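Example A, followed by Example B.
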Amino acid sequence: MSPRAAKTRAILLDAALAAFARRGVRATTLEHVAASAAFTRGAVYWHFPDKVALVKAVFDDLVWPFDIGPELAVYRQSEQPLMLLREVLWFKLLDFLRNVRQRRRMEVVLRYRGTPELPEELGERIESLSLRALQHLTAVLNIAYERGQLRRGLTPIDVARCLVAACMGVIAEHMEDPQARLEHSFHLAPLLVLQGAGALLEEDA
């Protein structure tokens, strides 16, 4: 693909993403995308044979914002895996919230997840990404659990689900204005979850 064609494709993808956020995926047509990008309809069809291909291309680079990955060695080596997890989540959320395209993709996902608005294949991919992120969090929290570093009565999956909810809340709060400056306290929600889950904070009773 020539540099000019690549630039045109990128502009079309940005226009489509903005249209999906504004109109919804189902209501957006290729004509809407062409008009928004100030290109002809033929230019859109040259890059994307149909709307299915366009939607797929828009979300090909979707990254789940707080997927910490499957690597566990660094957490096993740490004396305080919960503190390390806090730092990793902080950087993951910061990188995500600074990425305007990823935030716009996630805006569409949060608004239409679980509805017919999203193509079935995309919906399945979203659920797969979400489940994988939950599993990765649970695996790290299990290390803390095995060391007696989680509050009594909590399981790794309990804490992982609370972390997911907290991180989703942070992301949703920053969806209104993708260009807005990050609040200094944006990381407090997951931090407070981890502090509350830590056994060291529990009083003997």
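Example B, a separate protein, is given below in the same form.
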Amino acid sequence: MNVGSSAAKSAHRFLRAALTGVLWAGLAGGALAQTPESDSQNRSKAITIVVGAPASVNCAAAANLGRFDDDALAFCNRAIESERLSHQNRIVTRINRGAMYLRRGAAAPTAADKLAAGQAALADFDVIVERLDPNNADAHFNRGGALIMVGKHGQAVEAITYALGLGLKQPQKAYLNRGAARESLGDIAGAFEDYRTALEIDPNW
């Protein structure tokens, strides 16, 4: 089916961005898990790590810079394990760490490393949707990305569909992720519709 093949090509071009570049979280005080700015625009802000700042602040700064190295993750771990975070900051910090794990998985050199990173990300997003904020659209959307990474494509479709129902600032990225999951399930027609919808929302993405 030609349309399916064309849709698949669109998916392959965008899937890495769909799994990594959209997984942002804001600094303490408000979740910005789907900033409308591009990756390069975010990096140009030159957010820096501040010596002596709360670990949650440095975790957010590292996430906004696109980092996923051990030191960046250590800030998030310390914040979650040791700091007295507000309810909202706990959610934001979990999103930050989950985003780092997804980026790490996307860049992983082996399938085993990718799976481990995806499982770690999924654990953070599960905490949010199961305990902290069941109606957090960003967490459900990013959870869908983690489910794709660990090969649970049916559950990924469900999670992303739920996120779309809650409302997302950049729904085109959710449609691309869901299209990729549907393609993996053999639902070429459904995948094509999702890819087409994504490109209709943002033809220049």
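On Example B: The CA atoms of residues 55 and 78 lie 6 Å apart.
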